[in-house]
Amino acid sequence: MKKARLEAFSDGVFAIVITLLILNVKLPETDYEHLAEGLPGMLSSIGVYALSFLLIGMYWMFHHHTFSFIAEVDGVILWINIIFLLFISFLPFPTSMLGKYPLKELPILVYGINLILLNFMGFLGIVYLRRNKQLSTSLFTDAAFRTQMKTYFGVNLMYAACILIAFFSPLVSILLLTVLTLYLIIRSAIFVGIGKCILPDGRRDK
Amino acid sequence: MKKARLEAFSDGVFAIVITLLILNVKLPETDYEHLAEGLPGMLSSIGVYALSFLLIGMYWMFHHHTFSFIAEVDGVILWINIIFLLFISFLPFPTSMLGKYPLKELPILVYGINLILLNFMGFLGIVYLRRNKQLSTSLFTDAAFRTQMKTYFGVNLMYAACILIAFFSPLVSILLLTVLTLYLIIRSAIFVGIGKCILPDGRRDK
Amino acid sequence: MKKARLEAFSDGVFAIVITLLILNVKLPETDYEHLAEGLPGMLSSIGVYALSFLLIGMYWMFHHHTFSFIAEVDGVILWINIIFLLFISFLPFPTSMLGKYPLKELPILVYGINLILLNFMGFLGIVYLRRNKQLSTSLFTDAAFRTQMKTYFGVNLMYAACILIAFFSPLVSILLLTVLTLYLIIRSAIFVGIGKCILPDGRRDK
Amino acid sequence: MKKARLEAFSDGVFAIVITLLILNVKLPETDYEHLAEGLPGMLSSIGVYALSFLLIGMYWMFHHHTFSFIAEVDGVILWINIIFLLFISFLPFPTSMLGKYPLKELPILVYGINLILLNFMGFLGIVYLRRNKQLSTSLFTDAAFRTQMKTYFGVNLMYAACILIAFFSPLVSILLLTVLTLYLIIRSAIFVGIGKCILPDGRRDK
User: Fold this and answer.
1) D16 to A16: CB separation less than 8 angstroms, yes or no
2) Of all residues in chain A, what percent are helix, strand and coil, respectively (each to 5)?
3) Is the confidence at residue C110, as pLDDT, over 70?
4) Residue D77 domain-assigned?
5) CB neighbours of C9 closer than 8 A, spacing ≥ 6?
6) SS3 for C140?
7) For chain D, where are the alpha helices, taking DSSP H only?
8) pLDDT, mean of residues B92-113
């Protein structure tokens, strides 16, 4: 299995999931005169649509970044990647749940667990790569490994906090998740480089 | 992030959205004897399907053209592009709305705002590229920048006009949008080159 | 616009349409005990699924073959190709119609017209290529042009016959369309080469 | 037809099918208070989703492995591959059936037959390749052929056993299918190589 083919397959899955999300934004089953009544439901669906779209876009970038550490794909990395994609492909389900039952704790619980499991697969991949250095590129330095570990632990902690807060105030939980997503997006944008297209440590991302 | 990978991902999203549109053309829930009664609804869905299909095809070409100006992708261009794709992926929703409630003002309003936001992201990308010339190719001349600016302002003005007209006559609004789409298609076809495959300014598009 | 990018985009649309077809094969809304009653409906949907899948697979091959005649893509070929893809993407609609109302004339009429318009776009492309020889490859000989013309006329004649026959016997019409599809598949398989992978005229397809 | 284009098309279909599966995991049509009642149905859908996702992932790897034996694609291999993809694309239907009617014999029967037909197309391809050695690569040794034959017969025997057992105990049948899938995954992971990325026979997979 060439690395490039696994990457192309993963990109395909990302592109399809991100585009399928719109199927969860549904019109209410009413005639035009009563469409206004269905508006709040539509707006919550649209908000959740945007959140999931940006999150999946962010994971796509992150997936790409992780693959810059991988020189060769073995059977374990391959299956860790497929199960990672399983959790990416699953996201439309909690997304539709969150759109249909906004500001309730159960959808946030399912959404949060999905994201935690997603991160867990990424974490597993990085740990496995660390123990099988012959599969990694020279970009996978000790510093890169530690940054990844910190990111996984930090983000999962935030996801867990969102879940816990949901039992007290679903609204605060959703707002926190939105802020976290925007923070991760800005951080990823800075990482790829702003303006001068230079990585924080002065190397160019390829 | 290599430019080629972002382009391939964008192409994937375009191909999926354009193909998903057909899921909005639904059969009425009647038996065969009463199928004729559902015909007007189906025909309006099919008309809107064709309009959105051609519009997305046109934006795909335009996206490709814009990327000929980009030499290197940084974090800002990457996220502008992802949010641009968010608005492309959203189009099936106003399309289904327009198909279900034809000749009403609200669907046209949502459809029009979607298109204006789409253009706004493209506009943002071009302005950012102008301010970060080190990311652009030699094709991104002052003349090319001005042409892009004129196109964004002109087309958004037309979209805004369609929205305004919808409050007086939805039919005229839809007809205007259709004529505008056909005009943009013919213009894009001429730009890529007719017959001799030569750009207006004598250079070949690659 | 490079030819390769238009081909990749077209391949993407083909792959998505062919895979979306399964969404039209739906389970009846009954509990398990009454599932048997919904079986005839499911079987007709499955039959139509297989027919459309094979037809689209065949058009995919044919599209690939046609592109071997094209050296450069201009604006007209580009838009002929996008409208061709519009009719490919539309096929799931008559497919679902034919599955829901089997052995009725209207679905066959819509299905047949869709196929005829599909062929018409292909025909238009070939005629345009003939008049703009500078866009064609050396494979686009006079003999190749005549073969294409004969195929379009012959197949469209058969499609028209299927539509006409549908008004007398939908069953015979569907059977004829199935036989025609199988004939086109066998013909295309022979054309690509059997066993020795040689084209009929001794050249290898690349 | 270049082998690479057929592989890319097949990869596209695999990526789309594997991602479409989530559309079968549906929310119950109840308000939030009664969501708990729909939970068992959702859980069975989710379980079947995971099973089909992993199975399709496994077939994707297997498809890739099989193509390493093919040097040139002729018309017969092309159509065997398209019909193989037809059975891959069909899997969402028995998957949704199994999710809607869990622990019933009919869905397992349909699911099992689908898998057996899938394997049959793969088997057909390998036998055809054996008889047309000029189309195969040097990797397609006698030993490789025998391994493939054994795999097809062994796995189909297990699928048939799952179907038979379903008439006595659907639960045992599903458990057996799950164990078989996990076994095939582990086996495929070992085959691609664990840790040192070396094939069982010491050659590296490319």
Assistant:
1) yes
2) 80, 0, 20
3) yes
4) yes
5) B11, B14, B15, B60
6) coil
7) 3-20, 39-67, 75-90, 92-100, 105-131, 142-166, 170-192
8) 94
Alpha carbon distance B77, C109 (integer Å):
48
Give the tens place of pLDDT for each residue, D86-125.
999 999 999 999 999 988 999 999 999 999 999 999 999 9
CA C60 to chain centre: 7
**Distance from C-alpha of C53 to C-alpha of B84, rounded to nearest angstrom:** 32
Place of tokens 């037909």: D117
Residue C161 confidence (pLDDT) above 90: yes
Question: Residue B57 domain-assigned?
Answer: yes
Asked if C11 and D5 come within 8 Å (Cβ–Cβ), the reply is yes
D198 part of a folded domain: no
Tell me how far apart the alpha carbons of residues B173 and B176 are, in angstroms, rounded to a whole number: 5
Taking the mean position of all CA atoms in its chain, how far away is CA C117?
11
**Phi-psi region at A103: left, alpha or beta (left = phi > 0; alpha = psi -120 to 50):** left
| Residues spanned by the domain of D112 | 3-192
Determine how many CB atoms are found less than 10 A away from the CB of residue B154. Answer: 11
Residue pair B67/B3 in contact (Cβ under 8 Å)? The answer is yes
- For residue C70, list its beta bridge partners: C136
Entry pTM:
0.93
Interface residues on C facing B, Cβ-Cβ cutoff 8 A: 1-2, 5, 8-9, 12-13, 16-17, 20, 23, 72-76, 78-79, 82-83, 85-86, 89-90, 92-93, 96-97, 100-101, 104, 106, 132, 134-135
Residues of A in contact with D53 (CB under 8 A): 86, 89
Residues B139-194 pLDDT 10s: 999 999 999 999 999 999 999 999 999 999 999 999 999 999 999 999 988 888 88
On whether residue D128 sits in a domain, the answer given is yes
Identify the CA nearest to A121 among candidates A168, A80, A173.
Answer: A80
pLDDT at B200 over 50: no
Cβ-count burial D155-179 (b if 16+ within 10 Å, e if not): bbebbeebbebbeeebeebbebbbe
Our count of domains for chain A comes to 1
Read off the pLDDT of each residue in B85-108 and give the average, rounded to a whole number. 94
Across the interface, whether the CB atoms of D75 and C190 are under 8 A apart is answered yes
Q: Which residues make beta-bridge pairs with A70?
A: A136
Rounded Cα–Cα distance for residues C190 and C192 (Å): 6
Structure tokens at B4: 């080629």
